[in-house]
């Protein structure tokens, strides 16, 4: 099973697309890119964003971006610890990628870093797709 760990703020929205008037802002094109990654790789999406703490946030992700397979657990420490804890419970995962604008991950984790300035770009989406589809 392939998995995409998905953050939202700084990935599916950015400084230029967030008007701060909406509680859960989504950039339609960046949402399309996430959906395209899922479609092109047949990966499951695990929400690692703080939006997972709010039922309305999860509902917005599922309505406007992609179906959420699961969410990462809450752990003290860095977000990389939450990804590791989820992976430990899912040995069926053969490949995973992390889309996030933060750097609180371990060097060996498969982070594809976006920025809050630009969010998800076509180039980063292509890199994630190629990585998830790479032969093991």
Instruction: Tell me the number of helical segments per DSSP (H or I, 4 or more residues long).
Output: 4
Query: Mean pLDDT, nearest integer?
Result: 93
Shape: globular
What distance separates the N and C termini?
12 Å
- Quaternary structure type: single chain
Name the descriptors.
globular; 34% helix; 15% strand; 136 residues
List the helices and strands and how they pair.
Blueprint lengths: L1 E5 L21 H14 L2 E4 L7 H10 L5 E2 L7 H10 L6 E6 L10 E3 L8 H12 L3
Parallel strand pairs: 1-2, 1-4, 2-3, 4-5
Helix pairs in contact: 1-4
Explain how this protein is built.
This protein is an alpha/beta fold. It is built from 4 helices and 5 strands. The protein has helices at 28-41, 55-64, 79-88, 122-133; strands at 2-6, 44-47, 70-71, 95-100, 111-113. Helix 1 links the parallel strand 1 (2-6) and strand 2. Helix 1 runs parallel beside helix 4. The mean pLDDT is 93.
How would you sum up this structure in a few lines?
The protein is α/β, with parallel strands linked by helices and 136 residues long.
């Amino acid at each position: 099973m392939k998995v995409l760990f998905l953050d939202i703020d700084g990935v599916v929205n950015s400084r230029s697309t967030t008007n701060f008037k909406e509680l859960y802002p989504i950039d339609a094109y960046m949402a399309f890119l996430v959906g395209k990654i899922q479609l092109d790789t047949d990966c499951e999406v695990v929400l690692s964003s703080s939006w997972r703490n709010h039922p309305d946030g999860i509902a917005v992700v599922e309505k406007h971006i992609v179906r959420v397979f699961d969410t990462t657990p809450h752990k003290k420490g860095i977000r990389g610890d939450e990804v590791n804890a989820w992976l430990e419970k899912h040995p069926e995962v053969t490949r995973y990628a992390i889309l996030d604008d933060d750097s609180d991950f371990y060097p060996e984790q498969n982070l594809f870093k976006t920025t809050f300035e630009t969010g998800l770009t076509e180039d980063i989406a292509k890199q994630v797709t190629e990585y998830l589809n790479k032969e093991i």
